[in-house]
Design brief:
With about 325 residues, the protein is of the alpha/beta class. The protein has one domain. The protein is built from nine helices and nine strands. A seven-stranded mixed β-sheet has the order 1-9-8-2-5-3-4. Helix 2 packs across helix 4, helix 3 packs across helix 4 and helix 8 crosses helix 9. The radius of gyration is 19 Å and the shape is globular.
Length: about 325
């Protein structure tokens, strides 16, 4: 596998704990708009000073643009303005995370792509079937933590999220402190699991949580240091990309409803949830292949909806 695709070896680009705390105090006393204003200038300085970030953003948008041109789809040109907007959009998700972890995010700002998908999702939640949700790094999946905040007890659930413990340590520690000090407590629990430490015990625990009607979120588009050799190769925008096979094998093992899911930011600070419920086949081997194929197709379709919310600032396409 090419070295450039090993994102987990990328150095964290967090602003530093003191500067993050400064932004937090600005948020507390001046509000989110003030933080977004400061974030613009911080992001602009980062974008201008980091050739690597600019190159990765341009590379991603170029590949997506070339595919769209070849297939008669709407094209977004990989010009410098769009590259910056891509990076700035990502920076704004970090501001949103500050609001989410503080418990201030309004669940009314979240809506579904279709009413049928919404009904299906909440029907499975009310039935306490448990749901294994495979997400991608498009938009901001953290807004889905708010499923644990819904006032209706039949429309909320404990949430379990798999994250990398080796990436974004500074920022994740910062968010944890915000959540611990938040006055707006969630109705249900949000538990975190490091993807590097997945083992038999983890699988047993996750199976029990799903059997109790909880929701599990795991990324299907990035490799981790613990699963770098457990991959499957698939065409994505006409490029051969390695995806983590372990995510899909675990989803199949859990024998619970599987959803492909993404949350894209929309106008007026709202967020639209895109869903696709997976339908398994009788053959386990064919089911696994079908799950992988449909997930990659789902992520490609989501990316074409808004390429500027595709957040892979490393050698994803190399």
């Amino acid at each position: 596998m090419p070295e450039a695709q090993q994102w987990y070896k990328m150095k964290e680009r967090a602003a530093g704990e003191k500067r993050l705390l400064f932004m937090w105090y600005v948020y507390k006393f001046a509000g989110k708009k003030a933080v977004c204003f400061l974030t613009f200038f911080v992001c602009l300085c980062t974008f201008l000073s980091s050739k690597q970030v600019r190159n990765y953003a341009r590379r991603n948008l170029t590949v997506i643009s070339d595919y769209c041109k070849a297939n008669g789809k709407k094209v977004i040109n990989p010009v410098i303005f769009n590259c910056f907007k891509n990076v700035f959009n990502f920076a704004l998700t970090l501001v949103d995370n500050m609001e989410i972890f503080a418990g201030d995010y309004d669940v009314e700002k979240i809506y579904f792509d279709t009413e049928d998908n919404k009904k299906q999702f909440y029907a499975d939640m009310r039935a306490r079937k448990g749901m294994f949700c495979i997400f991608s790094h498009n938009g901001n999946i953290n807004v889905l933590r708010m499923f644990s905040k819904n006032k209706d007890p039949y429309e909320r659930s404990d949430v379990n999220v798999f994250l990398s413990k080796d990436q974004c340590k500074i920022f994740n520690s910062f968010l944890k402190k915000i959540q611990e000090n938040s006055k707006q407590k969630l109705y249900n629990a949000v538990s975190l699991f490091p993807v590097e430490d997945i083992g038999i015990d983890t699988s047993i625990e996750i199976k029990q949580k799903l059997d109790n009607g909880e929701i599990v979120f795991m990324a299907g588009d990035r490799l981790s240091s613990g699963t770098a050799n457990l991959t499957f190769c698939h065409k994505f925008f006409d490029r051969d990309i390695n995806f983590p096979a372990g995510t899909f094998k675990m989803a199949q093992l859990m024998e619970t409803p599987v959803y492909f899911i993404a949350a894209l930011k929309n106008k007026k600070d709202t967020c639209k949830i895109y869903l696709k419920k997976f339908t398994p086949l009788q053959s386990k081997k064919e089911t696994l292949k079908k799950m992988q194929d449909e997930y990659v197709e789902f992520v490609q379709n989501i990316t074409m909806i808004d390429p500027l919310q595709f957040y892979h600032f490393y050698g994803f396409f190399e």
